[in-house]
Amino acid sequence: MKQLTIFIVAIVWVIEMSAQMKIDIWEHTNNHCSVECRVYKPKDVDKPAVAVIVLPGGSYFWLDSSAERTMVGEWLADNGIMAFVLDYRVAGTLEFITHSRVLHRGCRYPDALEDVQQTIALIRSNAHEWLADSHKVGVMGFSAGGHLALCAGLWFDSPTIDVQVSLRPDFIVAAYPVVTLSNPDYVHLRSRRGLLGDKPSPQLCEALSIEKHVREDMPPVFLMNCVDDHIVKYQNCELLESALLQKNVSHRYLKFSTGGHGFGADDLKCNDECRQWKRVFLEWLDNL
Description:
alpha/beta
């Protein structure tokens, strides 16, 4: 009986892995980095699917490994959406501890944005092969990943890479995102340090504060956070929504009273209130 159980588990694992593939987004390019992207394909796909690039949080120092990463990829695929979970470049835990970028550049802006733009280009360039809809490519980011997703939705016409396809996402999902890097009352200092180094200039902080650069042709935005978020202050989303309203950008903002931070797609980390974001997002996406 034990051997049979092991065999069944192994078969299930093989089936699950066959629905995924890993790609190195910088393979066959002049960029010498190696950045992994894991693709979660919906089952029984017979027509081009919506594609979503998933950007886990982690303060631009590390990447969440489960709730905002694998669980998101699996949830999207279960709902007929092709997920590209991107391990974009971050500063690293060692840098967080040692502050070694005082002596050398390390990973910092615009490295992560380059990774997102390269992934958008790959999806659109290989859409037919992967059975992805090149006109429905979105970005979904959590916490610092939300900041990165918003950056991709702002500076798509200022490419960091040489490509022949549009880098404009078709929609943006920002879950409890870092938004401002300049407002001293609401900035998440760890994320700012992870992205820009220990002593960023005020000009650079201003330049990468999302609320200061919202534009009328920005893709539709789905925004979500919780008032009791003690990591990234909920006012980040309020600053962004105010700017979206000013520029008349199509958006949906879910502000929950409770739920905290970092729950992603993990229902065990959610309460009854905040776990509703997944259902509302799928409805919003259907109506775009």
